[in-house]
Design a protein that fits this description.
The protein is of the alpha+beta class. It is built from 3 helices and 7 strands.
Amino acid sequence: MRCAVLALTVVTLAPVPGPTARAVPVLVAALQVSGASQSAAQASDATKIIVQAPPPTGLTSAAAWVGRTEQMEAHLKNAEIVSIQDIGTGVTRPRRAHLKPTDPFESLVWKVLPPGRKSGYWESYKSEVAAYELDKLLGMNMVPPA
């Protein structure tokens, strides 16, 4: 008698070297037809799947600033703003500022957040700067340069 066994295994992908490298857990399913004498555990042991993460493709990563924070901070301080446009959405009415030179990035989102209480919450541009500095100290790489 034959039976079908569905083996679910969590595999941690080997990270591809680079600034955005990290191990990624993936649920892998394997269907194996086995004899009745095999247990489900034996069937899943017989199923080995090796998965490799795809290599990063340039600066398309959401965390493109990782490893380039000093260069980006200098660009934020020294670049000339050549135009500002309303984005049109968002509670804080953000604007897109285009910069010259355009390397390492050509534009940024700028929003006015004067310190004060809004809708019962304390808001300030200082909170975003503090979040960025704390992120740098902890090495989390979750907050872009601000």
